[in-house]
Design goal:
The protein is mainly alpha-helical and 311 residues long. Helices cover 41% and strands 2% of the residues. Its cofactor is heme.
Amino acid sequence: MILRFLIWALLSSSVCVAAEPILPLHSVATDERKVALGRQLFFDTRLSRSNEVSCASCHQLATHGADKVPRSKGVAGRLGDVRAPTVYNSVFNIRQAWDGKAIDLKAQVTLPVENPKEFATTWPELIATLNEDKSFVSAFKQVYKGGLSSDAISDAIAHYERSLITLNAPFDLWLQGKGPLSEQAQEGYRLFKYYGCINCHQGKNVGGNMFAKMGTFGDYFGDRGTPIEPADYGRYNVTKREADRFTFKVPGLRMAARQDYFFHDGSEQSLEGAIDTMARYQLGRSLSKAELAAIAAFLESLVGHHQEMTP
């Protein structure tokens, strides 16, 4: 009898989780040797021409996987075109970068390397620099048959980024019946679904799996108060399709509660302000302070943990 009850409880829990539009995060398979090499590269400033900028400069893992400015600084202090998104949980994104120009994490690595506003170098220069480090060359030969190369470097960093998954978020534990969730966060989740936020922000990463136009129910760019820049065209810059103008990859919200700036342009500096803006421009809704606070509490419950994060 007890065995039957336990089996029923496990099956019921699985059905409940599967029925929800948001799914708990889980680890993905990685090659630990490649992860170790990728971690070294991620923090290595030799990837930039000036030897001052690394992946970790813009994607600060101790906090939320991004930096604390609206636009990151690259070589010679040059500002990037868009806000750096979090690298945490990026393995679950349908494509990489705000405009989806990179098909996966491995392809994304090339973007900062050759961008004059980021690493401002070339693959031949970068490989020549790393080839001077004999221990590094040896380490790559042990893992990759072809040794040190642009493909191996990209693959190693991508493997490390695949491992950056924030597990055991309070919401995930609650969803699986393994932990409590505050009434305010539960109300926030209900509102998140009721108002339609869930239509774009769902799945494992609570987003990152589709593209959407910025400003469905209002002229976001006209109201923003600053001139439109090429980066504001979003997905259009990749596809050249007019329908994709002002369209961006929907960001995952797993680490949103820890961000310092929001949206591709970094124009909003508070979580509740970002929720309010999204409600008005994407849903055509005006939310009360209590509703904004509840949804913020729900987003806070999505924050999990990774060993690279500061406790």
